[in-house]
Amino acid sequence: MIRSCHQPWLLGGLLFLMCVFSSRSCFGQDQSLLLEVNVDGRATHKIVEFTQHDDTLLARTEDLRDLGLLIPGSTSEWTDLHKIPLAVWHIDTQAQVLFLSTDGRSLKPSDLTLDNPADPEMHRNVESSAGVTLNYDLLSTLASSNSGVNGQVNVRAFFPRGSISSSWLGYAGGVPGPYGPNAAVRLDTTYQYADVDTMRRYSVGDFVTTGLSWTRPVHLTGLQLRSDFSTRPDLVTFPLPSVRGSAAVPSTINVLADGTQVLSQQVEPGPFQVPQLPVVMGAGNIALTVTNALGQQVTVTQRFYASTAMLAPKLQTFAVEAGLVRLDWGNKSNHYGDAAGSAIYRRGLSPYFTVEGKVEGAQGLVAPGVGGIVRIGSLGTIRASFASSLGDGHNGQQVSLGAERIGRVFSIGAYAMLTRKDYTDIAALNNAPIARSQISGNIGYTTRHYGTFGAAYGDVNQESYYNASLSAQQLAQRNRIVSANYSVQVRHVTVYANEFRSIGGGNNSQGFQGGITFAFGSRVSVDISGTSDGSGQIQVRRPATDVGQWGYGAYVQAGSFNHQFAEVQYRSHLGYIVGGVDQTLGVVTGRVETQGALSLVDRRIFASNEIFDSFAVVDTGSERHVKIFEENRPVGDTGRSGKLLIANVRSFQPNHLSIDPTGIPIDATIENAAQTFRPRDLSGVIVRFKIRAGHSALLHITDSTGIPEPVGSMATLRSTKTAVTVGYDGSVFLQDLEPKNELDVVMPDGQHCTVSFSYKPTPGDIPLLGPFPCKERTH
Q: Does residue 684 sit in the same domain as residue 745?
């Protein structure tokens, strides 16, 4: 009885265990399918493994992503197709094809780019030779009462690991400087090195601290470490607009930014996006046109706003600086205040928000602050900041708020900064007091045919303070100025008018200026203007901007103040010189100004125009008077020395130089007719074009009966082991020949022979030698 009672339970348990260990027998069978996939009517030509269980179809997550599907947040190996949002699928069992339909939002868009951007992590090679450059700007004056010379010089030594520079002001003779007629004042002396891989710059010496829009930079002598995006000229640092779309069939995409085409590209069916579009700063419109093979078009327009004040997402900058405060810069060479330091940080958190912060400190002072910039859609930007200062007698706060919109037609901006009386920063501790309030605003309107209108307002409230440099108490001031301007250009004529008015505070001064400018060609202009005080001016200018150009200038002012001058200019490859005569209130003064640079590099001194950044020295060796091209533009020739200095090439960017091969003797060999180099900033690079005498000849060889050796025979010059092919009529072109030469020839049938001959170079020509009989080798 007991056995019969428990038999049903034993049989049920056995069946349950069979179902557990063999689910296919009880709950349906899993099927492994190999199917070709069709997505939104487009064949992918890919076969993917699927697993089907009842109405569930599973695929490996990586396989789905390879098909261009977006599977966000999935960490499992397999994904159920039912979990793909708004996706519908069915299987054609006979064709073994899976048809998958989506609404487009489940597909990864194809990226359309304007070019192939460099990998930001890629190592970037920059070059720098060793040398010294001296820039000078000297002005000599000669008047009836006195004469003298004043000017500015900058000397810098450069090498692969950076540069050291020092700039000076000098006064000599009757032209008085700040501390007498004969004096020299040091401005800045700095060593700096830019790391192109980390985009950081290291400086030791004199520098100006890095500031934000709501901070005040100061001059320090010490150490500085900061971000430097100038080492990556190809990097766009602010958020750029992007466009998205979808094509049902193969189509052509055209993108226009403010009417200018920036992209035209073919796309396959499916979603696409252009992640970064080059646009002009401010508000604008982007038009996206999709054209299919039948010429049917769909155009979508979207607005954008771009601001260089913001940082692109995940991009960040920083600066850390410390040292002694420079006082009386430009008047004294070595006048220092107390030690101080500062640090700033900025980061783009999204295309719509950039956060920034700062902290600065000195003895008895710590001043932190935080701020941010927000983009309001396509309307404009709003910026705000809050800072405080802590210390003995320096407890205070500073707040600022501003808004800006720059448009193609209408622009407007406003800014206000308010400071409590005890708020202090490093500049305030060193004789540069803080304005208690600053309010400004501007508005601009541009018409298509009637010109541009603008107006601005400024209000600065400055309390009284003690000026340590002048040892005097400065009275409180409040300046409020309203200004307006208008200009219109009709072909080569520009009409303009400007007016300002100072209001309040017992100062109601005002002024007006109006004029007209005529442009004749690309260099000559004539300006006629008048002011509200009864003065009139006429100015004629023709500047000498390029090497080899002459220029001139003349100016006449009459009315309440009389002033006239005339000058002549000339710019050569050695420098720039200006000579003129000036008459002011009956006093006649003659002046001569020279600007240029002297560079010592590659054991030679080069004279040139001023070099503000980098330069290149081209060396063509023993070849003289070789024409040089920069970016396919002629820039000079190497002259009798075989060298040419090219001033102001682009630092950290590829520069392209080439030579004119038609000017090279026919018997010379050019190893590299074009070169690309990327110079370090404030440095010089030697670019060598290897041109050497080829010692070449065209040799004719025959067999012992005078018949030319067969075409295709191989001839090897023993001295260089160089093998060449024998051409028609037994001709062989040989290079690097010596006075005595031997040539081994192997004919197509395997026979060997030898040619012995003498060679004497002919300058500027390739001699024809032979015919020479090829003597068979004897073993």
A: no
Interior CA angle at 426 toward 424 and 431, to 5°? Answer: 85
621 and 689 housed in the same domain: yes
Task: Return d(Cα 644, Cα 634) in angstroms, integer.
Answer: 12
93 in the same domain as 19? yes
Q: How far apart are CA 609 and CA 648, in angstroms?
A: 9
395 occurs within a structural domain = no
Tally of structural domains, the chain:
4
Residue type, 629: F
- 584 within a domain of the structure (yes/no): no
Residues in the chain: 779
Read off the tokens for 736. 């690097």
- Residue 117 and residue 95: Cα distance in Å, rounded? 42
Both structure tokens of 469: 């440099």
- Tell me whether residue 682 is in a domain: yes
At 525, give phi and psi (nearest 5°).
-140, 150
Same domain for 718 and 656, yes or no, is: no
Angle at 12 between CA 10 and CA 18, to 5 degrees: 105
Residue 287, domain extent: 243-306
Q: What is the CATH number of the domain that holds 661?
A: 2.60.40.2610
CA–chain centroid gap for 341, Å, is 30
Model-wide pTM > 0.70: yes
| Identity of residue 596 | G
Q: Compute the distance between CA of residue 617 and CA of residue 127 in angstroms, rounded to an integer.
A: 13
Using only C-alpha atoms, what is the Rg of the chain? 39
Q: What is the CATH number of the domain that holds 35?
A: 3.10.20.410
Q: What is the pLDDT of residues 340-351, one digit of tens each?
A: 999 999 999 999
pLDDT digits (tens, 9 = 90+) for 175-221: 555 555 558 899 999 999 999 999 999 999 999 999 999 999 999 99
DSSP, res 248: S
Residues 228 and 244: their CA atoms lie apart, in Å, by: 32
Q: Which of 59, 78, 108 is the last residue of a domain?
A: 108
User: What CATH number corresponds to the domain at position 739?
Assistant: 2.60.40.2070
Q: Which residues contact 726 (CB under 8 A, 6 or more apart)?
A: 701, 709, 710, 711, 712, 713, 714, 715, 732, 745
- CA–CA distance, 27 with 16 (Å, rounded to integer): 12
DSSP annotation of 216: -
Looking at beta carbons, which pairs linking 25-28 to residues 24 or more positions away fall under 8 Å?
Answer: 28/53, 28/54
One domain, residues 58 and 100: yes
In contact, 518 and 524? CB cutoff 8 Å = no
- Residue where one domain finishes, among candidates 666, 693, 720: 693
User: DSSP assignment of 648-673, as one string?
Assistant: EEPTTS-EEEEE-GGGS-TTEEES-S
Distance CA 440, CA 461 (A): 12
What are the tokens at 238?
Answer: 């602010």
pLDDT for 602-637, tens place per residue? 999 999 999 999 999 999 988 889 999 999 999 999
44 in Cβ contact with 66 (< 8 Å): no
Reported in sequence order, the residue ranges of 293-409 that DSSP labels E, i.e. its strands, are 297-306, 316-326, 336-350, 353-362, 365-376, 380-389, 396-405
Residue 64 in any domain: the answer is: yes
Residue range 46-66: average pLDDT? 85
Using DSSP's 3-state secondary structure scheme, residue 249 falls into coil
Residues 665 and 718 occupy one common structural domain: no
**Euclidean distance between CA atoms 756 and 699, whole angstroms:** 11
